[in-house]
From TrEMBL:
One of its GO terms (molecular function) is transferase activity. PROSITE patterns: HEXAPEP_TRANSFERASES. Keywords: Amino-acid biosynthesis, Diaminopimelate biosynthesis, Lysine biosynthesis, Repeat, Transferase. SUPFAM superfamilies: Trimeric LpxA-like enzymes (SSF51161). The keyword Magnesium does not apply. It comes from the Bacteria. This is 2,3,4,5-tetrahydropyridine-2-carboxylate N-succinyltransferase. Residues 4-41 form the Tetrahydrodipicolinate-N-succinyltransferase chain A domain.
Amino acid sequence: MTWQQTLTELERGSIRAAAQNEQGHWQVNSQVKQAILAAFKAGNNVEFDGIYHGFVDKHNLPARAFSVADKVRMVPGGSSVRRGAYVASGVIIMPPAYINVGAYVDTGTMIDSHALVGSCAQIGKNVHVSAAVQIGGVLEPIGASPVIIEDNAFLSAGVIIVEGIVVKKGAVLAPGVVLSASVPVYDCVQQRQLPKGAAIPENAIVVPGTRPVAGAWGQQQGLNMACALIVKYRDQQSDAALALESVLR
């Protein structure tokens, strides 16, 4: 399959940069990522006209245009969805937001203002990506997994997720949570530390935390480093607190 065909199939949602196998594990489609890199290599920088006058980018990776038939609500005000990204019907994109090449955004999801969905990131159904959320992308190395956000997750304002972290179904991340392979996650309910880079469990409610810096000098200075804390798992009360989401739609 050529890079042109790959970009078209990505936009249709018929192929993805990463997908779940029968056991529910996410696997990278390295051929898709190779095709995207080939598209960048083949592209030439050009000046755009019309509403994009003054912008310069690869000629073969322009911003996507939507119509009513797509059933995507793309609110005016500076958002952009790049060529090769899939956006399902029922998605709402508030300005300004950006969805990069190879990303997959499933039905019913809201992408709020100043949010970034990075290259090849995978966003499930009915996810709320709140204002200023940063979901990192990855094209290289080819085998590296992108960030995965599964169905019905809620990412509050200012959340940052990078380095291929997986957020499982129904998880809620409080404002300001930062997740990466180097940020430890402590489950205060199960009284354990998650393995480095492990997925955030289903229905976990995660808040920002701190932990003491190792070493005598750091402790003498009272220094702390960032971590994330699972403080509870979703129940009827926590679900009620998220009910405003349906009203906003």
